[in-house]
Amino acid sequence: MPELPEVETVRRGLEPAMVGARFTKVVQRRPDLRFPFPERFSERLEGQEVRSLSRRAKYLLADLSSGEVLVMHLGMSGRFLVTMDGATRMPGEFHHEHGGAGAHDHVVFGLSNGATVTYNDARRFGFMDLVPRAGIESSKHFAGMGIEPLGNELSGEAIARLFMAKRTPLKAALLDQRLIAGLGNIYVCEALFRTGLHPEAPAGSLVTKTGEPTEKAHRLADIIREVLAEAVEAGGSTLRDHAQVDGSLGYFQHSFRVYDREGEPCVTPGCAGTVARLVQSGRSTFYCPECQPHSPSKAR
Ligand SMILES: [Zn+2]
Fold it and tell me: Is 149 annotated in the active site?
């Protein structure tokens, strides 16, 4: 499943193909993905210019000259394939010969700059929607969504405000999309490990009695941004290196320090611990019991 850094990588990969270009032809091959496509989908896109391509949590938002926003979500297996005219290709961009229509190519965007952007989704948990820009924050996809983790909103103060008096385990609180939006299992495990916080520690242990962020709260905020930024950077380098042979954007190998390493020695220098796994809310949590002691006093 693409996590936030992968979605950001996809955004960066699509930007040169889409921004500033008009949709000249939109081919929609099915009535639905996870949800039905909006009515008159192709018609509402064709002729419109993409003014900008942004991201909110794991959603991609293409702002159109019509005042609507094309909202795209990759679901479990969604990916984009980009074909750009060799003659108009610029350094740093990627190029891929995408021959023929794949069985899971559900939408094909033809753009005025000659680029073709194909949406492929084998499991069809992704979706697309068209939403008016005005009031988009209160639209069904974004209403009640938590703060953006890869940005300035996330700080020790924000964590204190969101986690105050919460007995919820830290891991669950960090995965709660109503608090922080778009943080997934892998990056939460990595961030807790690097911060030295036990995944089952109460979320409220990062907040003082007077509602101030603890030292660890500040550190956790910094580390979450750092972990995500590193992953985005790793994704960016795969784009540059053309390492993905099928030309797809957004799925890349990234080495994790604790995620999926159960039974392996902890990578922290001088630590004799072994990475352990526990299951929280049905999902695996990986952590080092030595680096992440389960003691609220140590979490300060
Ligand atoms: Zn350790």
Answer: no
